[in-house]
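A sample follows:
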Amino acid sequence: MAILTDWKFHRGASTHTALLENRKRRRICSGVSLRHLSSIRIFLFVTAAGIYIVVSSIAFAQQFREVTTEVGLISEAKKSWGNPIWGDINNDGFLDLIVPTHGLHSSGGPFVYLNNGGIAFIDIRTTSGIQRNNPDSSDWHGFAFGDYDGDGNLDVFIAEGSKRGSKRVSDELFRGLGDGTFQYTSRTAGILIGTDRGRCSFWVDYDNDGKLDLFVKNQFNVNRLYKNNGNGAFTEVSDAAGLVLATAGSDQGTTCSFADYDNDGFMDVFFAGDGMPGSVPTDALFRNQGGNFIDVTAAAGFTPLSSGHGIAWGDYNNDGLLDLYVARLGSKVGASAARLYRNNGDGTFSDVTQEAGLATDANTQSAVWGDYDNDGFLDLFVTNSGTELVGLGNANLLYHNNGDGTFTDMAAAEGVQLEDNSSAHKGAAWADYDNDGVLDLIIKDGVGNEGDNGDRALGLHRLFKNNGNSNHFIELKLKGVQSNVGGIGARATARYASGIAFRENNGGGGGENASQGSQPLHFGIGAARSATVQVIWPSGVVDTLSSVPANSILTLVEGTAP
C-alpha cells in the first residue's frame, strides 16, 4: 500500500480553534479500481466541551473486503472464547485489539495487537504483560476492558475457570499503564482465590457512585460482585446485590450483558448460557433498583430458553428504548432459536423475530449491532458455526435494517457470509479501526472447548474493512467526571434533519459474548450535514451539543456542555 500525505495546520488565535487539514490520497494496490477511491479530509476542532475531528470517508463499490494479511494480523488457528475486544490501550486515538483464545495449554494465550495509525497492527503478545500468574489453571475465558482506577488507561480483567472446580485459582486483573503494557494486580486489588469456574465478567457502575465495579459470571457456583473502593482495591458485595445465584449451577448461565433497558439511570442485566436440551432454561432478566437487582424475567414477558450465546442490546427502531437480540444454537433449541425482543417501553418485551424477518434455525453464536452503512438504522451481524459435524451450512448473517421494523440478509452481497461449509464462525465485533467513520468487522472462528480437537475446534481471526459510502456519521468518545471515567452507562441521542438515533455506552463492539470492549459510540446520520448530540450521564448530568458537523469524531467531557 502506498499512501501520499500532505499535512497542513492552522490556528486562529481569536477563536482558539485548531484546524487540521489532511489531504490524503490513498492508492491501494488490491485490484480495486482507482475510480472507486476519493480523498480523505480531516478537520480537528478543539473546544471547551471536547474535541471534534471531521472526516470525509472513502467511497467504494463493494462494502467489505478482507484486509487480514494486509494489516498484519497473524494467521494462526486457535480455539475461541468470547468476542474479540477493541480498546485504545496506549491512548494514541486508534483502537487496539485483543482476540481471546480458549485455554493457555493449547492456545498459548490471547492475540494482543497495537494499532499502528489505522494502517497496520503490531503483535505485542510477548511484551504486553498479559501472562500467567500464580495461582492459575490456564483455563482463561472472557476478557473485559474497563478503567477501574480512573487514571485514563484501560485495564483488562480475565475470568478464569477452576479445573473441574477443584484447582484453586484467581481471576486475572491487569492494570493498564497507558503504553500498551499491563501490570498484574489481582492480589493487591482483592480478587479472591478459590475454586470458581469463571466464564465472563462485566465492568459496570451498578450503584452509580462514579466508580466502575466488577461483576464475574461463574458456572456451577455462585457469581461475584466486587465493589470499587476507589483506592485500587475492591470489596465483595454480599449476595452480589441480588445476583449471587443468577443462572448459577450446572448447565446454566455462562454469559451476561448489562444495559439500562428502562432508562431509569441504572444498568440492568440479561443472562444467557449453554443449558443443554431438557435442562433448566438459562435466560434471565434482572432489573437494577438503585443498586439491588430483582428477577423480572416473567414480568418482562420473557419465555426463557437455553443455549443462548451472544447477547446484543440495541435500539433498532430508533424509539429511544434498547431492544434485545439473543443468538442461540438452533440444533439444540429448534426453529427460530435466535430471538429479537422489542422493548415496549413499559418494562415488557415482545418477541418480534418472525415479523422482523429474523427467523433462523442456524447455530448462531454471536450477535453485534452496528450501522455499517451509516443510514441511521442499526444493522445486525450474526455468526453461524454451522452444524455440529464439520461446519456445514455455516453462512453468517448480515441483517440490513430496512427502517420499517424488518431486516434483509445482505451477508453474501456484502462479502461477509463466508460460507465454506468448514469454518465454525463464533466471535465478532464492529469497530472503526482506521478512524474513517465507518464500522469495520472482525470475526473469530473455532468453537472447541479446551480438550476438543478436530476441524471445528480451531479457527482464524479475520478483519474486514468497510469501504464506506456517501452517508455521514458522528463518533462520540466519553470522558466522565462525576460519572465513571469511561462513561459506562451513559445514554446518548443524536438528532438530525431526517431522524433520531439512540445509543447506550456499555462497552462497544455491538454486543457481548463473554467479552466487553471499550469503544466510542457510533451514529450514522445519512445525508445530514449536522446533528444535535445529547448525553445523559450516570450521574444525572446532561450535556447537549448543537450543530455538531457531520463526519465528526468527538470527545465529550462530562459537564462541559450543559
